[in-house]
Amino acid sequence: MERVTLPEILTLEEASAYLRLPTQTVVHQTMLGNIPGRKIENDWRFLKVAIDDWLRSKSGRRVLLQQVGSLADDDTLEQIPNVRVVNWVD
Q1: Contact, 55 vs 47, CB < 8 A?
Q2: CA 15 – CA 21 distance, rounded (Å)
Q3: What is the three-class DSSP state of 23?
Q4: What is the pLDDT of residue 87?
Q5: What confidence tens digit (pLDDT) does each residue in 30-75 have?
Q6: Is 20 domain-assigned?
Q7: What is the domain extent for residue 62?
Q8: Which residues make Cβ contacts (< 8 Å) with residue 34, sequence separation at least 6?
């Protein structure tokens, strides 16, 4: 029998931790349509692969740069995978 791999689904708190942003910011940006996510009844869910794709996109760059002040004191900023702001072009 073939094993099926399900996509990783994040809660609001997990997505916030992954993005290193406050939960209020993630909710606000998701409601604006900037961060990919869905509200199911009272709970938010995010596909990790969709967030990764969004971070690589130009719109993801714009939102991330708007939040750069909240990332300034993050000692783990260097560890964020696949984010190379200096090489992105508008």
Answers
A1: no
A2: 9
A3: helix
A4: 44
A5: 999 889 999 999 999 999 999 998 888 866 666 666 666 655 566 6
A6: yes
A7: 9-84
A8: 59, 62, 63
